[in-house]
Every structure is written in structure tokens, then in C-alpha cells.
Amino acid sequence: MKKIIGLTLLVSAVISGCVANNIIKTNTTADVTASYNSINKEQLIEHIKVLSSDEFEGRAPSTKGEALTLDYLTKQLTAIGFQPGNGDSFLQEVPMVSIEASPEMTLSINGKDYQYGDEMVMGTSRISDFEQLKNSELVFVGYGVNAPEYNWNDYNGLDVKGKTVVILVNDPGFATQDPELFNGNAMTYYGRWTYKYEEASRQGAEGAIIIHETAPASYGWSVVEHSWSGPQFGFVREDLNKGRVAVEGWINSEVATELFTRAGLNFEQAKIEAAKGSYHVDMGDLSASVSVKNTVKESVSYNFIATLPGSSTPDEHIIYTAHWDHLGKDKSLIGDQIYNGAVDNASGTGALIEVAEAFAKLPVAPERSITIMAVTAEEQGLLGSKYYAANSVIPAAKTVANINMDALGVDGRSSDVSVYGLGQSELDNFLSIAAKKQGRTIAGDPRPAAGIYYRSDHFAFANIGIPALYAKTGKTPVDEATKALRVELGESLSKCYHNLCDEYSDAWDMSGAVEDMQAFFEVGYELSKENVWPQWSKTSEFKR
What pLDDT is attached to residue 454? Predict the structure, then answer.
């Protein structure tokens, strides 16, 4: 990859108080309607085809695919009149390190070996050529949660230094379906694998192993196998990430059941006990050994930022985001090696271009600036958006809202719009009005247990206080033909998530994606008017 020169980044201000104004203007002029109607499926499909083509090699960070993607975005946004969003550059440098664990490893537990890929996936976040567990005692720590506000601490009274903690995925609310426990069926951040490794590290554990189960994880074992193998990207830190556990990884539920039996425990009963309250138990005399040999490479990737300056308050911005990256290619495979990432997320990246073009076609620029941001390394743990949040080009206090587009619907129109994190902020009101004009209503997260509000790039913006909206085509098909199409496409779309088969198909119906983009355009247009500042709801954890 040829080197792309970025600029020194500006350090963001922390978010300050916003002017409350809940009046939503709904008049849409003929000129705005023309821009709205300019969003079309033909152009979106062309963008998806290019970005997910084999030539782009799966768009992994710091590869040829990144260079091609950034070049494509630069040409597209320059052609419609957007300006560089980071000083005189379209790029924000994101220094990263890739750590690729050799698959030639076994997890040995009291003399029995478990195989990489089929039964377990292990790795490390430490920037190191070699890490290991050597006869590290196993301790089951339930959900691995330390949450004072819920009066819950699975580590209470437990010293895990030198030990390896074994952890359930998701959180207790999902297991019990008790709406009063955590957030009931809806996953909280405590249920995310990122949190569980972070907390195990804070507790001083030597290793952390999450038990995969499809229902609470919301994805199958193949996602773990494909997403956690190959290069894993992270930030370059002064301590080389030595504060993280030495080894972190996953085992499947069959292995877990066997291990609990070997420890004289019953896995199903242990899960029941873990959901009742703070819980941990030693796993008999079981101990884990595994050697992780790594190939470590420091690299630079880039966030892409382009701005259409506002006509009266250009220092205030509405930011549209999508992640441009995917999983790249796996050279160890025979035959198809490329994870093209057509739905995830060539669709969202193409949508960024379409929405930007609609704003560019307005006869008068919006009052506030419209900023288009395609971020890197979402698939590696939202790294690009996290880096931007910590090194904001636009101060948080000057960012009115974030609208995120990730994995658009490709199976036709719906009579509803699924809002992930419904009730978090007043942005729901704006989207509701835009959807109503299309004859649609807004609905909540169709899969609350998956914790999707915490799994895409808007989360980084929410974490620094910026109201963030993430929504997509709903689950109620608009007619019988669309219902039949969803039955036809459903299994393949589910199977192809983070798999080689996520490629563009002529069988797709992009009409629902177009409606979504048009609604997102209208929401951004209304937010671009001066003195409109959407607020977090009183019950949102992000309000504070």
C-alpha cells in the first residue's frame, strides 16, 4: 500500500452544555424534495459493486483495499463539492498495530487438547511476539460483571491473579428475561465481549475465556472463527497493552459443557446460578495451558472526513458515519479468499456518498455543516470511531448529532423503521416525522438481546455525549411479494454475515435502503437548521 499522508490531529474539547430546543420544523421545499428524490438505488448499487469487488480485496485496514477505498471516496466526494474535513486533508491518521496469532496452537486443559477453529479461538491484545498460559487455574465468574449500579459483582471477594476466568456471553437480563434485571432482554454494555475482557484485565486475571452460545451472542460460532482469526487490530499504547490479560479467547458451548462436567459441575445449573446474582466458582483442579505466537506489525490506517460547509453556522456539524472496512482476505483458504463485505459495509459506505450528494444538490447549502465520515477498523472493535472520539477534529460541543449507517437492508421495503436504542434521545422524534411522510412508523430494536446499539460506530459518539441515531429497514414487509423475498433471502443473508458469501446479488431489493437513506437525509436536513439541539432522554445512560 502506498503511504497516504495525514495531518496532525486536533484534540477535541469535551462536550459542554447544549441549547435545548425541541421544536422540529417539518416544511420541505420543492428544492429539498428534489435532493431527497435524487437518492436512488441504481447509484447505490454501483457503489456497492465497486467497493465490494474482488479488486478491493475485502477492504482490510492498511492494505491495498484501504488505498483503493480511500481513493474512491476522495474522488466521489470531491466531484460533488465536499471539502477536506481535517484541515486540508480528507484523512485522519489512525495509528494501529495488527497482531496475528498463529493458528498452530492447542488449548490444553489437564492433558486434553482442544483444537483452534473448531473448538476454540485464542489470541492476545498484548503487543508481543509470544504470550502464554501455563497451568493457569480456571475459575468460572458467571457473567464477569462488576456493576455497582446493579449491585452486582461477580468478582466480589475473589482474587484472580494468575488465573484464567471463564465467562458467559451477554448479561443476566437476557438469561432470565426479567425486565427489572439489568436491561431485561436488551443487552447492556456489560454483555459485550469487549467489556468482559476489559473487566478481567482490571481484576488482574492472567487469561479470559468467553463461552460462545448462539442465542445470547446473537451470532453463530462461525462468526467467532472467522472474525477472531487472522490479523487483529488495536491501538499502539505506551505499555504495549501489558495491562490486558495475557490470553483472551473463546470456546464453544460443547467444550464448555465438557469442561464443567470434568470439573464436577453442571453447565446448565451453573448458568442458572450465575443469573441469580453475583457468582463465581472454582472449576475443580482444571487449569489451562496455551502458547500464542504472534506476528506483530505496526501500521497506519485512516478515517475519511469530508465536509459541506454550512451557510450560516459552519462550525456546527451533523456527522454521518459508516465504516468502510471489512475482514480482508484469508490467504490460507483454497478457492475464494476474499471477504467482500457487500452488506457489511459497502452498503453503508455507498449510502454515505448518496446522502452527501443529496445535500450537495441543494441550491443553498444547509445552515450548519454536513460532515461525511467513513471510519476504519470497525470490525476490530470500533477502533476508527473510538480514535476519532478521543481525537475529535470537530469538538463534541459543536457536533449536533451523529447518524450512522451500517449494513443497510437489502430485502425490500418495510412499513416500519427499526431504531436501535429507541428512546435514547430526541433524534427518534426527527426520524418518526421523516418516516411518517413515507407512510412508515418507527419501531424498537427487533433483536434487543444482541446489544446492537453498542456494536457500531455511533456508540463512540454517544460515549462522548453526542446524540447518535442508528436505524435501518424494519421487520414488517410492506407487501406479500416483499415477505416472500425475505423468506427467500433470509437464510443466505444470515449465513453470509462475516463470511465469504457476503457479495452483491441481483436478487437484492434496495428499495427499502433508499427509503432509509431518504429519511436519514431529511433528519439531517432538519438538524442542520440553527438552534435545533436534540437532547438525550432523561433515562439514557449517555445523558450523564
Answer: 86
